[in-house]
Design a protein that fits this description.
By secondary structure, this protein is of the alpha/beta class. The protein contains six helices and 14 strands. The chain folds into two domains: 136 residues, Rossmann fold; 70 residues, ACT domain (Alpha-Beta Plaits). It binds ribulose-5-phosphate. Ribulose-5-phosphate (5RP) binds next to helix 2 and helix 4. It catalyses: aldehydo-D-ribose 5-phosphate = D-ribulose 5-phosphate.
Length: 223
């Protein structure tokens, strides 16, 4: 079952963390298990850690797990562990299914080691089946949407579950989920961020060191 696979891969990643590490804490249902296991290790092994959350969600989970919180102002990140929505063979990612990709990219890209934890369904030959999340300053919603369409994308504003308004990110912005043919991930990542009003997009290139892939058979480490 998928939840069990996520637990296995999250728990295994938590075993990589060493006493004294400053840890980037990703966002999502897979990193939920990573943070949970760190909490268990803090109690069982008296592990001393500092955590840098990538969202309010991971901030509150980390507090529950008794991880001491710090910031990028105070510390460099030794290791960041985060989930992904798609991973291609070159370890390019689409992230942002949880609307947290802006801070995730800041924390994950600053880490000495960045480990991605996914279940096997996230491994793809080519990015783009999952729409690319683009965080947008609200006042730029219309102008950015027009530009995204000009670039060949099909943007949909992400709506809150009750459909009574847009999802608002931790930074107070909106999200477009944009269907693209992602032929050149690096180029698209750069071009999207060049649009006035775009805060950050969910394509992550050139920053992943390791991917832990969970399946029914176990967890495989790709480097
Ligand atoms: C949040 C993310 C998540 O890491 C991504 O959506 C994967 O989530 P999950 O582990 O729940 O499948 O990028 O912004």
């Amino acid at each position: 079952m998928i939840t069990e696979i996520k637990r296995k891969v999250g728990y295994l990643a938590a075993e990589q963390i060493k006493d004294g590490d400053v840890v980037g804490l990703g966002t999502g249902s897979t990193t939920h298990f990573f943070i949970e296991k760190l909490g268990k290790r803090i109690v069982d092994e008296e592990l001393k850690l500092l955590g840098i959350p990538t969202s309010y969600q991971s901030f509150f989970l980390a507090k529950d797990a008794r991880i001491q919180i710090t910031t990028l102002e105070e510390h460099d990140v030794d290791i960041a562990v985060d989930g992904a929505d798609e991973v291609d063979p070159k370890f390019n990612l689409i992230k942002g299914g949880g609307a947290a990709h802006t801070l995730e990219k800041i924390v994950d890209s600053s880490a000495s080691k960045f480990v991605v934890i996914v279940d096997g369904s996230k491994m793809v030959d080519k990015l783009g089946n999952f729409p690319v999340p683009v965080e947008v300053i609200p006042q730029a919603s219309r102008t950015v949407r027009d530009q995204l369409i000009k670039m060949g994308g099909s943007p949909t504003m992400r709506m809150a579950e009750r459909k009574d308004g847009p999802v608002v990110t931790d930074n107070g912005n909106f999200i477009y989920d944009v269907k693209f043919s992602v032929d050149n991930p690096k180029l698209l990542e750069v071009e999207l961020n060049a649009l006035p009003g775009v805060v950050e997009n969910g394509i992550f290139t050139d920053i992943v060191d390791e991917v832990l892939v969970g399946t029914e058979k176990g967890v495989e480490t790709l480097k």
